[in-house]
Amino acid sequence: IANAPQSIKSVAKMLASNKYKKIVVLTGAGVSCNAGIPDFRTPGTGLYDNLQKYNLPFPEAVFDLGFYARNPDPFVQLASELWPGLKHSPTITHSFIALLEQKGMLLRTYTQNIDMLDVLAGVSEERMIECHGHFRTASCTVCSKPFDGEECKRIIVEENRAPSCLSCKGHVKPDIVFFGEGLPDRFHRLVKKDVRDADLLIVMGTSLMVSPVCQIPDMVRRDCPRILFNRELVGTFCRDGVKSRRKSYSNKERDIFHAGDCDESVRLLCSLLDWDEELDELNSS
Ligand code: OAD
Ligand code: ZN
């Protein structure tokens, strides 16, 4: 612990200061990799590098609304194989978010993931936004009419076909957000206020490549410190005072980047804070 990197020490100092009560957390697929769910864009292991058998014009087509209208089969096949169930357990990073809530420090966690691991870790529905939707309910991609979620699952998983809408015969899909669709109302309802109120932003396990979620780090107030626990530098975060090349709101006074596995970063951070027992308890319950 004594030779913990300065970046983690700085974060520990901030969290120990009792100054931050409205933390906004932003996560992506990287926080679930240690649960055994691959991310999208890591070369080699990411989902988008492993879709050859679907013969797609481009990898993201599997989650594209226009493509689904013409050819729902690749998504149906992928969803039947990867339908989120109860086979994965929350990681240390998910439990850390639940711990922040327990300590009254969490304003909101914005997840781009559809694996429901934040809920399993104990984060309350109120504190969580599933920005890219979820598999629990379904609706028609043409007329938006709701379709029974269980029935959608049965048809996709057992019959391997896209369910048809009962009123317009359009293709039904689970209510996960596809490219070409808007985000859930709850996201739009809360994001503007949350970025104004945030006193600290913690970003973990995301490439910050998909809009509008990737804009959140540039929407928080200019005086809101930003922490990034990720394998790589992403978005407009800056490292060692060097600004990222993208249009940048970064500033070396407020950004802290720690490169590496987010579970390892969180573990180290929690041991500096003497939160490790609480963290382990949450993670094993
Ligand atoms: P990506 O796969 O684009 O990015 C994952 C990020 O996490 C990368 O920067 C990795 O380096 C990093 N990473 C992986 N494992 C990690 C670990 N153990 N610790 C720390 N960092 C790690 O996934 P997302 O950013 O979530 O949307 O992708 C965003 C959206 O693109 C997804 O929600 C999905 C996808 O298309 C839709 O389909 C609408
Ligand atoms: Zn319809």
From TrEMBL:
Domain Deacetylase sirtuin-type: 1-276
GO cellular component, one term: nucleus
Domain of life: Eukaryota
Keyword Metal-binding applies: yes
Binding site for Zn(2+): C140, C143, C165, C168
Essential cofactor(s): Zn(2+)
Active site: H132
One Gene Ontology term of the molecular function aspect: NAD+ binding
Keyword Cytoplasm: no
Keywords: Metal-binding, NAD, Transferase, Zinc
Protein name: SIR2 family protein
Organism listed in the record: Skeletonema marinoi
Location of this fragment in the whole protein: 69 to 353 of 357
